[in-house]
Amino acid sequence: MMANAKKVIEERKKALTAIKSDTGKPKFGLMDPQMIAEAEKARRIAQLQAQIQEKINAVSINAAVAAAQAHVREVTAKPKPLILDAQGRTVDMEGKEVQLTQRMPTLKANIRAKKREEFKQQLQDKGSEDIAEQTFFDPRIAAKTAIRNKRALKFNEPGKYVALADKMRTKAQLEKLQSEIAQIARKTGITTTTKLALITPTDARDDDVPEVEWWDSIILAEDSYAERSVGKVVFQGGAVTNLVEHPTQMRAPTDPLRPIYMPVFLTKKERKKIRRQNRRETWKEEQEKIRLGLEPAPEPKLRITNLMRVLGTEAVQDPTKIEAHVREQMAKRQKAHEDANAARKLTPEERRLKKIKKMKEDTTLGVQVAVFRCINLLQLLLNCLRVTVQRHDIRKSVLFVHFKCCALVLWSFLLISN
């Protein structure tokens, strides 16, 4: 195809040179159209032949490659002969040892498990290397891994908890026996005697004088008073400071056992509100009982002022009878009110006890007493009657103590009965 193209190009060159030789100048506009068409046709034919040749060459190359691949597959598809030497090793045709390829896991689960194991191993190796390089590494302490291990089931050995229960019962019995022995020793006094015998030295005598007293041994630097005779006392460092030790605050006998809180005083408005709420709750309960049929419905509360509004036509029919009925009902309500007040009223004896209780002092925590010293006995005798009468009135106890030169009057706030 290249040769044909070169041939066409040579022919065109010859035609051009022939035209130039005829006229002496190139005459492109005077070329024969037939020659131009033939030249174009020849160029197209050459181009088509070149394309066909390229396709033929490509097909032949592909066929050769496919044949080569088929041959390789055919060769590799055949199993290689297994040759073993005297020691059982795999060798090739020349007798050299051949390393067989190991089969790798193909399942995703097996691949993930293998990768997980490799990652754990890498972390452990890295962590151990990092910890070992540190200066404060203690090999006795096991290092925790970065990955949390799965919790596995732990099965107890049979009889484990039975042995533990037996051990606890034995310990409880031993403690009970020890407590009983301690109580018996405390009752008989053996414990106190034993402690005194341990504390008291065997060769101790009453006339022995210690080198230094126990209360001075805390602050003195030396164990004797030898330095004191010279006039120089050496104290321990930090034994004497400018701090004051305050004793623990104890509860006074007169303090109440329970805390006393200030009672809450309500205002007049708050008291009215609470009373209104309580009355409303009571009224609701009564209405509920009437609705359920537990109590009869009360009669209308009639008065002279609401007589015509409540009864209506009945009051017009017989006004005298209705007025008598209303006044009877009013008298009945007044009597019930007076009876309730009388029931709540205290009897004379109850009023007296209430007054005494109000004046009486709480003596559970203590008794307050006033002491007076009288120099003038004559004046005291004149006032004895007055004091006696007054203490009966205010329910106080008075005690007169007479000495040679004076007299004492003990005025107690303790209430006594007649």
From TrEMBL:
Gene Ontology terms describing biological process: mRNA splicing, via spliceosome
Alphabetized UniProt keyword annotations: Membrane, Transmembrane, Transmembrane helix
Transmembrane segment boundaries: 365-385, 397-416
Lineage top rank: taxon: Eukaryota
Cellular component terms per the entry's GO annotation: U4/U6 x U5 tri-snRNP complex
Pre-mRNA-splicing factor domain mapped to chain residues: 135-347
Pfam family, one: PRP3
Protein name listed in UniProt: Pre-mRNA-splicing factor 3 domain-containing protein
Organism expressing this protein natively: Cloeon dipterum
